[in-house]
Batch of 2 targets.
Target 1
Amino acid sequence: MKLPKNFRQIGEAAGLTKIYIEDYVMTYLSAITKDSRTYVRGAILFGEIERVGSETYIFVNGAMEAQNIELDLDETVFDDEVWKKIYETKDQYFPQTQIVGWYLCRTGMSVRLNDKIKKTHFENFPGDGKVLYVRDPLEEEEAMYAYRGQDLVRQTGYYIYFVKNKEMQDYLIDVRQEQEAAISYEKMLAQKRDERIIRQSRRKLENKNKKGEHILQKTAAAAVAMFFLGATGTYLLFGQTGLPQTAIETFSDKIKQTSNGEKVKNDKGSVSAVFTTETSTKNETGNSATASTGEKKKETVNQSDNNLQTYTVQKGDTITKISIALFQSKKYVDEIMEANGLAESESIYPGQKLRIPAIK
């Protein structure tokens, strides 16, 4: 047996069992240890076991990741499919070796052995000289065990040796390429997933916009219907005079202002209020139809116990209409609103009692 010339001792490598781990193998195991995707990681160790007298020499010159160990040890299974994969890798990269043990990394779980770990070793890696290398990267601890005398015995130290290890180098190159391909594949899947999410979001937005346009069309149709209903009601209200032609021709402008440019207060854009204002303006020049309407409005004015006049709001009333009906002018709108504490943004409703100020 020829021992390696270049090596480094870790700990006190005393006793009858000497363990040598090649540097490339140790580098690979360290890379697995730093992988933060899982808390438990493992590898299968390849090499040779030689016995010289009472001493046993174990040389570890190859390793492959065992992803089945990423599960909890209670669920870790070394079935025929797993062993087939292990031996295929061994025959491809490490044909002149044998399985000499395994590596176990358990983050935050210490390097002490428990019954589950021992059971896994006894069932899958039996035989004298088979090793178990354990690490806990969180506590920065490691321990080397060797099977001897029906039990796993912790070693006091081991050796890292340096040789040309083309087999392990080839394996590392292929693993790196597989990892890069896997990363590229994951990026492709992520990109496709993002594109699909974008397409779904666009479709939802388009459907929402179409729904909004449909609702807007319905609202416009309802507004047109309300316009004609309001126009019909105003025609019935004014009876013999009918709707003023100028109000019909300038309907769109009347929604925001009256024919003389004065904004209607507290009318909330009512169609009938616009028409009433237009007709009531003509009343100041002697329209008899509005005067008769004003007489009807006066009938709703009552005297309170304190000689304060009140007016009961009728359907279709606005402050402007009430001012014109009671005082034959719309210039008393502010006085009526002030007497009732009304703001321009407030509306009145049928049956509401309004205080009517005494106008001199």
Target 2
Amino acid sequence: MAKGRLTAKKVLAVDFGASSGRVMLGSFDGESIELEEIHRFANEPVFLNDTMYWDFLRLFHEVKQGLIRAKRIDGIQSISVDTWGVDFGLLDRNGRLMESPIHYRDARTQGMLEKSFEKMEKERFYQITGNQFMEINTAFQLLALLEKRKEFLERADALLLMPDLFLYFLSGAKVSECSIASTTQLFDMKQRTWSKEVINSLEIPKHLFQDVVPSAVKVGTLKENICRELGIAPMDVVAVAGHDTQCALAAVPSMEEEFLFLSCGTWSLIGTELDAPVMNEAAQRYNVTNEAAYKDKVSFLKNIIGLWLIQESRRQWMREGHTYSFSELERLAADAEAFSCLIDPDVPEFAPAGNIPEKIRAYAAKTGQKAPDSVGAVVRCINESLALKYRAAKEEIEACTGKLYAKIHMVGGGTQSGMLCQMTADACGCPVAAGPVEATVLGNVVLQLIASGDISDLKEARKMLARTEKVEIYLPREQEKEIWNERYQEYRKRILHQM
């Protein structure tokens, strides 16, 4: 790592979550990274007729607003974008966006998972892609287009996943960054390129797919017309790890070679970093995913619906005229009865937007449990259920890898919930090292600095983050051990239906 620079290196990290986006400045002085929020904005889906879209035009406008606000800062050397996975935009032969990208929560993919198995045998499908089967995945979105809007898909000239779509309109480069490509269920995890076998079997037009590039490479320069429009100087455009999970993984401040991470936000992703994909019988049975991480590493993880349940419940209470802060929700949950109701966060009824508290009450009735009768009871139910689901995922990953993990490194927005962090430690029976909160942005910044040569490699970056970022340790409470173990065994049998 470069030391003692007189002038800090500056980069812009554009980070999109499922409900908001921000443009952040990362300044690196050779010893530590300082973050400054330049611009924050909402990322709200748009419903038109019966379809749920991302508002891409507005989001790109907001990125440009961030660039305008950053004009006061001299010497910004590069910009990059990370987003959620699986969603994409289609370009016509003139490079124009054909329509706003459709949201992964849109209903168009219902039933497409089973239809795909009519075209390709499930076991072979997993042996190639190593992806967790989820109807939201790109493969099944494309199957829906083939079935319902074939003529539209046939007019398309190129497919770009969300971070690559932003990079294209910033720089003109049509590329597919490796980490985001690996979320599609169309990617050969062993060869680290598009799978011709899968694409041909599903009858998806081959010409849509762009060349795959590794994480942390320069793909172009900010377009001249954007620089002229905004009155800004040119800067490099870098492909970091386009999938925000892999940016977060890059910022896990672990000095261990083998560790378990939990990236906790709208989605919870719990897993480990490996040298090669794991696609054995246990991995397929447990439906664990393999994603491409930085520098030929593999992120072996489980996707779990996460803080979406809290976020969407809060939106429902706001619709009912009650505005609660997240800290208020946590205080109400602390006063609620423990373990009165538990849910599986990943059952299909919790995926769409809507009245989550009512859906939880319906789930409780269906499973013969006491329905949460207060705001605090709903929040406690969600947090306890997430902690228990994390333990189940931890055990599944350990069964697949043959390794035991003595600590969980928890990063992202969920680390701000002391209740969830402590419950995770109690449920999993191991320490939880919580932090940094801004792991995704830090990972984006770090990978830009690696691309420019200002940081030598990920090992050095993690060493710096371990030294400079705030991490809080939550230890499992001995007095809670027996009750969490009892509830976990009940949860496995009654809710997850595992023996």
